[in-house]
Amino acid sequence: MKLLIAIVQDADTPKLVKALMSNKFRVTKLASTGGFLKSGNTTLLIGVEENQIDDVLSIIEEICSSRAIKKGNQEINIGGATIFIMDIDDFKRI
Ligand code: 2BA
Question: Mind telling me which InterPro entries this protein's record contains (predicted)?
Answer without folding.
Answer: CdAMP_rec, N-reg_PII-like_a/b, N-reg_PII/ATP_PRibTrfase_C
